[in-house]
Design goal:
The chain is 41% helix and 22% strand. By secondary structure, it is α/β, with parallel strands linked by helices. Helix 1 packs parallel to helix 5 and helix 3 crosses helix 5.
Length: 157
């Protein structure tokens, strides 16, 4: 199984880039993992929120395959403990899933078409975080999940 984190826009803050890089390197030990950044839309002032979501959807669809298992990182998604998230990932591996694509949407979330295409929705918290911070939090939780699965001492109960 391989995992992709698909994001709208780039991570700009140096401290976040450094943190993401730390977990990106650590994850390579456990699973093929990549981050794909879709450029932010330009000249959006004349676009409605729905138009922006629709244009972002077009870009998202260009980066996923019909066989991908698509998981949206969404405020209304299912919440997991770190252990439960590791169980979720393990079920996907054991179930023969080849490619998980986790998606962080743009500032207004996802279009109805993206919601329709998704297989799951996960929320990392009931709190709201910047899209850039979510990338770091997700990478850390993914790393934590794999250390839990391997019985390594990173996670403490």
């Amino acid at each position: 199984m391989k995992i992709t984190l698909l994001t709208i826009g780039k991570t700009e803050d140096k401290y976040l880039i450094e943190g993401i890089d730390i977990y990106f390197k650590r994850l390579k030990h456990y699973i093929p993992f990549k981050i794909t950044e879709i450029p932010e839309l330009k000249n959006t002032k004349s676009l409605s929120k729905e138009q922006q979501k629709s244009r972002e959807a077009e870009l998202i669809f260009k980066n996923i395959q019909s066989t991908d298992h698509v998981i949206l990182l969404d405020e209304n998604g299912k919440e997991f403990s770190s252990k439960d998230f590791s169980v979720y990932l393990n079920k996907k591996m054991v179930g023969g899933q080849q490619h998980l694509v986790f998606i962080i949407g743009g500032p207004y979330g996802f279009s109805d078409e993206v919601y329709s295409r998704s297989n799951d929705k996960i929320s990392l918290s009931q709190m709201t975080f910047s899209h850039q911070m979510i990338r770091l939090f997700f990478a850390e939780q993914l790393y934590r999940a794999y250390t839990i699965l391997k019985g390594e001492p990173y996670h403490h109960d």
